[in-house]
Amino acid sequence: MSWITNTLTSTLGRKLSMSLTGLFLVSFLIVHLSGNFLLYKGDGGQAFNLYSNFMSTNGLIRVLEIGLLLGFGIHIWTASILTRMNSAARPIGYAVQKTNEKVSWFSRNMGLSGSIVLFFLIVHLINFWFPYHYQEMPMLDIEGKPYKDMYGLVARIFHDEWWYSVLYLLALVLLGFHLQHGFASAFRTLGLDHKKYNSIIEGIGNIISIILPLGFATMPVYFWFFHTV
Ligand code: HEM
Predict the structure, then answer these.
(1) How many domains does the chain have?
(2) Of 15, 25, 27, 95, which shows the fewest CB atoms inside 10 Å?
(3) Relative to the CA of 72, which ligand 1 atom is closest?
(4) For ligand 1, is residue 52 a contact (CB within 6 Å)?
(5) Is residue 98 part of a domain?
(6) 40: closest CA among 150, 151, 142, 148?
(7) What's the burial of 55, exposed, middle or buried (CB within 10 Å: 0-12/13-18/19+)?
(8) In a domain, 13, yes or no
(9) Does any ligand 1 atom lie closer than 6 A to the CB of residue 218?
(10) Model confidence over 134-158: pLDDT tens digits?
């Protein structure tokens, strides 16, 4: 067993778990964004409310939720250890930061963008996940059955509390930069980079890091400006 522990706690092992959990979280974001597009169905929120109800009551989804929690937990925990190890190896810091044109400010500050996205995530779960699971909420009748009105909650938060929309938009910009650097870096760590395919991997990373945040960003913008509650 000790070789497993040794591998997982080595720097390489930590980088591997960061990469694997990072790619897993990207796959969650793709599913989450696709489901959220039901907000635009134009049926007063019926499809979105049925979807939210399915996601929070289906047994298999609840098991996947534990995997998601573990994914976020390992990614964040390992990131904080690697960041601390990096600063311990360089306690004074560079008097003059070496400026390699290929290394952007965002690549050097993954910890900062990740921490702001984490702050956003906590606010986001308090906004939506917590009330849905643990609070009384207005109900919407769908085919004679009452469902918690998650659509109404999304609409109210983005429409009435404009500062949430601003926070979401800022966090989504940072999420974009975080994904852009993280995606290519994960492939490098996993040894899946190759001169021949690097431009394709970078291209996919660029598309993901633009499409995902942009897709999510349409939601606060739509409810803030174009939807009347
Ligand atoms: C800006 C547009 C977004 C909207 C409208 C939105 C909406 C929601 C809603 C309604 C829920 C509650 C679902 C439920 O409990 O059944 C939820 C959960 C969640 N969201 Fe978002 N979300 C957005 C963006 C994001 C982003 C950018 C992230 C990650 C960086 C994220 C991560 C999560 C997580 C981790 C959960 C809990 C998942 C679960 O319990 O299965 N969301 N979101």
Answers:
(1) 1
(2) 95
(3) 35
(4) yes
(5) no
(6) 151
(7) middle
(8) yes
(9) no
(10) 999 999 999 999 999 999 999 999 9
Could you tell me the distance, in angstroms and rounded to a whole number, from the CA of residue 103 to the centre of ligand 1? 31
pLDDT band at 94 (very low <50, low <70, confident <90, very high): very low
Residue type, 85: M
Residue 21: inside a domain: yes
CB-based contacts of 182: which residues, under 8 Å, 6+ apart? 22, 110
User: How far does residue 163's CA lie from ligand 1's centre (Å)?
Assistant: 18
Helix intervals (H) in the chain = 2-9, 11-36, 46-57, 59-89, 105-108, 110-124, 130-134, 150-160, 162-189, 198-221
CATH number at residue 210: 1.20.1300
For residue 84, the number of C-alpha atoms closer than 13 Å in the C-beta half-sphere is 7
Position 49 in a domain = yes
**Ligand 1 atom with the shortest distance to the CA of 217:** 1
Question: Following CA atoms 40, 46, 48, 49 in sequence, which dihedral angle do they give, to the nearest 10 degrees?
Answer: 150
- The answer, as to whether pTM is greater than 0.70, is yes
